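Q: Please design a sequence for this.
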């Protein structure tokens, strides 16, 4: 796939087929992720892969409960309360796999490095005909000791990018983009 085509057409997918994504494909996507640049070539990332649907259901339930219990009424995300309270809403959109990119330390800049790896992962998935969705709502629960324990995330690692991955049920529609503000110096 052409790089610019991938950049312009990759979209968040929120409806997945139940077909599993095989381990070799996940390894291929992670191999693309680790080609991302990192500050002073630290490559400060680790990957947790979850393909157990019962576990993903449990994680979804626990993450939603945590969000609902801790979200301030004045949060800009408060509009999502009804969705999060709906027992039929699955936070990972029933994707067959979840890949959590974790920083291997909390040093400055490592989160950004992991974000670069996440973008590579998502672009490679798009190129392979797969869909992805970065599940930001999962982060607060993954930061808890309980969430880390569930996923066997070492204490000194920092979960950065929980990404649902699978075969999309349909092509995600285009999303309009705002005109960027550009400040020219010189």
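A: Design:
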């Amino acid at each position: 796939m052409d790089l610019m085509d991938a950049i312009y057409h990759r979209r968040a997918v929120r409806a997945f087929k139940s077909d599993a994504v095989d381990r070799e494909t996940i390894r291929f996507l992670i191999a693309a992720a680790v080609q991302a640049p990192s500050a002073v070539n630290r490559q400060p990332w680790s990957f947790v892969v979850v393909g157990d649907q019962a576990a993903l259901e449990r994680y979804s339930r626990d993450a939603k409960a945590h969000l609902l219990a801790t979200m301030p009424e004045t949060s800009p995300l408060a509009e999502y309360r009804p969705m999060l309270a709906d027992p039929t809403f699955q936070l990972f959109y029933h994707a067959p796999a979840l890949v959590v990119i974790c920083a291997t330390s909390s040093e400055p800049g490592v989160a950004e490095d992991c974000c670069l790896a996440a973008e590579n992962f998502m672009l490679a998935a798009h190129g392979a005909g797969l869909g992805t969705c970065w599940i930001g709502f999962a982060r607060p629960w993954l930061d808890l000791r309980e969430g880390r324990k569930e996923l066997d995330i070492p204490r000194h690692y920092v979960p950065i990018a929980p990404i649902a991955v699978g075969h999309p049920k349909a092509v995600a529609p285009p999303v309009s983009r705002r005109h960027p503000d550009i400040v020219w110096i010189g």
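Q: Thanks. Anything notable?
A: The longest strand covers residues 158-166. Helices lie at 3-9, 23-33, 53-70, 81-85, 110-127, 139-142, 145-150.
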